[in-house]
Automatic annotation (TrEMBL):
It comes from the Bacteria. SMART domains: TGc. Residues 96-161 form the Transglutaminase-like domain. This is Transglutaminase-like protein. Pfam families: Transglut_core.
Length: 313
């Protein structure tokens, strides 16, 4: 047993790379990476630029980069692009023109890959952050969750926040390696806030209703599905969908029967996540389980079916 009664098997599971985080043939480039989780977050931050950060950095992101980088779902492919653009050691801060153009999931994916390489149990968590806007809206977001041996618990870390120059536009008054759980709600917690505590579904999503359709109960349900998949080390793109009920008209509520699997998933993906339960539910529930072929609804490159590398539970 691990500290605080944490079963060793779950920590071993999250220390091993997944097909999505495995650097593969690019592993030699991990030589020289630091050991400290915060320093690894900074490395990930300095290799990437969020596709929405061009104005903040005063950099006009080339359209071909937005299209070319958009559907890169595996860490080794991200690393390959980075090395092709600049073969310097990964710990060296990249100029903007040589960075991978990604989203929050990509910061978390590389951070998770680095942590696992260093023997630190880590996993991606999908959910909603309240620190990107001042109007109380909870923004769709992905962070890293890593095991802190000293404290004997899982902590949330946001590698995207590891750029102090951008903090002026965000409400960041906390340790980026210990994000408060009331500032970032894992998807199941957001779902339960809506279903059990009367939270307004319109305050959760990619953006508020007046800015587009990607908000509300249906959108949160999709994040519950993504978070359960990530807890099973299936770290898909955020626009990979595999539930027809969930994948259309995000602002429209789900039917009563369609809520059932998300109610079940939310109960076990909050708080002290029970490892065996998340493994079993993902393996047995046809709505929640990621199929081998998903529908990728990419913003820039359009919708297409994509067959994932691995055989899934």
């Amino acid at each position: 047993m691990q500290p605080h009664g944490r079963p060793a098997v779950s920590l071993d599971f999250y220390t091993a790379q997944s097909p999505f985080t495995d650097p593969g043939a690019l592993t030699p480039h991990y030589a020289g990476l630091p050991d400290d989780p915060a320093e690894l977050a900074r490395v990930a931050r300095d290799l990437l630029i969020h596709r929405g950060e061009g104005e903040a950095f005063g950099y006009d992101i080339p359209q071909d980069r937005l299209h070319h980088d958009a559907e890169t779902r595996y860490a080794d492919d991200i690393l390959r692009l980075l090395v092709e653009r600049d073969d310097a050691p990964l710990a060296r801060r990249r100029p903007l023109q040589d960075r991978f153009v990604g989203v929050c999931r990509d910061f978390a994916l590389l951070h998770c890959s680095f942590l696992r390489h260093r023997g630190v149990p880590a996993r991606l968590r999908s959910g909603f952050a309240d620190y990107f806007r001042a109007d109380g809206f909870h923004c769709d977001h992905v962070v890293t969750e890593y095991w802190d041996d000293r404290r004997g618990t899982w902590l949330l870390a946001d590698a995207q926040l590891a750029e102090p120059a951008l903090h002026g536009g965000w409400d960041v008054d906390f340790d980026l390696m210990d994000v408060p759980r009331d500032r970032f709600l894992v998807a199941g917690e957001a779902w339960r806030a809506i279903r059990e505590r009367g939270a307004d579904p319109a305050t959760f999503g990619l953006h508020p209703p007046q800015e587009g359709p990607f908000f509300g109960e249906r959108f949160v349900a999709g994040n519950v599905r993504l978070d359960l998949a990530a807890l099973n080390k299936v770290e898909t793109l955020l626009w990979d969908v595999w539930s027809e009920e969930e994948g259309v008209e995000p602002g429209r509520p789900l039917s009563k029967s369609a809520r059932v699997p998300y109610d079940r998933a939310a109960l076990i993906t909050c708080g002290d996540v029970p490892f065996d339960a998340v493994r079993q539910l993902f393996a047995e529930d046809d709505v929640l389980r990621t199929p081998r072929t998903v529908l990728c609804m990419a913003q820039y490159n359009g919708t297409s079916e994509v067959t994932l590398r691995q055989d899934l539970p």
